[in-house]
Design brief:
The chain is mostly helical. The protein folds into two domains: 86 residues; 71 residues, no CATH class. Helices cover 76% and strands 0% of the residues. Helix 4 packs antiparallel against helix 6 and helix 5 runs antiparallel to helix 7. It starts with 5 loop residues before the first helix and ends with a helix.
Amino acid sequence: MKSVTPQARWLEEFLGKAAVWITVFLGLLVIFLPLLPGWGAIQRLGEAGFVRVLVGFLFFYVAAMIRERYQLKSRFMDLMEAFDAFNTALFGKNFKVTREAVTYLVTSLASSNPSVREKAHALLVRMTGQEMGPDYEAWKKWWDENRLTFTPVQGGAGEARERSET
């Protein structure tokens, strides 16, 4: 997940607050419209006053829901950023990329092309420090069991990337 810039977060919070305040303003307008000059003409509509009050409270309810949504979204984004920071500290800067690479390399062991299988096996050995031969089923079983706790061999991912580019 990409980090959100402070400007983007500020704009999102501002727009969320603006939506709430505009909705509150419309609700107040609907409720207090009878106090404004010229209400006599509107009053001739009949039972519309009761409906206006209900609609006004509906605006308040919608404003409260919008506000709650933005608060929850903000808290969720903070939680996701903290989770990413935790994973980065625990598993390294490229923890997502490395895991995806291992997943693709394990899948590549099932290729019908012997050259692809050979290169995938060599990269897997460098990245994981495991030696199981080019057996797809063995690697798949190992990866399914170790995916969540996997940490790459120090320098293995970088070396593997550099050697695969040559």
